[in-house]
Amino acid sequence: MAITLVNPEGLPRIDAYRQVAIARGSRLVFVAGQVAWDADGVTVGEGDLAAQVEQCYLNVATALAAAGGTFDDVAKLTVYVVDWTPDKMPLFLAGAARAAAKLGGAPVPPGTLVGVAALDIPAHLVELEATAVLS
Question: What is the Cα–Cα distance from 75 to 77, expressed in whole angstroms?
C-alpha cells in the first residue's frame, strides 16, 4: 500500500478522517470532482444529501478502479457541499458510511469540506474529488 494514514500527536484526533497521509508510491491519480450521477448521467438521490454523498464516493471508487487503485490509495479528499451547515454532518456521515459498507471499508484519508453556494446544476448537493498515490 502506497499510503499510510496517521493522526499525529499534537493534532486533534478526528475519527471521520486522518490528519496526515504519507505517500510512498510512484503514480499520482487525480480524480475530477464527482457528483451524484449514475453511469447514465442521471442524478441519484435528488434532494437527499446522504444518498448523493454515497453516490459520489462510489463514483470516486469507480474512477480509482479504472486507474488500478482503491480508496486505500487516496491521499487527499476534497468535498464541496451546497449551503453547508454543521447540522448536515450526520447526513454526510451516513452517506459516507453506506458507501464504505459497499466498498468494504471506511475511506478516511485527510480531507477538506468546503461549503459552496452552488455546483454544476441545482440538483447536485455535493461534489467529491480525490488525489491518490499508487505504487
Answer: 7
CA angle 116, 107, 47 (to 5 degrees): 40
Rounded to two decimals, the pTM is 0.90
For the stretch 48-84, pLDDT in tens is 999 999 999 999 999 999 999 999 999 999 999 999 9
Question: Are 23 and 130 within 8 A, CB to CB?
Answer: no
Count CB neighbours of 98 within 10 A.
Answer: 17
- Backbone angle region of 10, left / alpha / beta, with phi > 0 → left and psi within -120 to 50 → alpha: left
Q: What angle do CA 103, 26, 20 make, to 5 degrees?
A: 60
> Could you tell me which residues are beta bridge partners of residue 23?
3
What domains lie within the chain, and their CATH numbers? 3-134 (3.30.1330.40)
CA–CA gap between residue 120 and residue 73 (Å, rounded): 27
- Comparing CA positions, the residue from 41, 36, 26 lying closest to residue 126 is 36
Q: Identify which has the larger pLDDT, 123 or 106.
A: 123
Rounded-to-10 torsion of CA 58, 61, 65, 66? 80
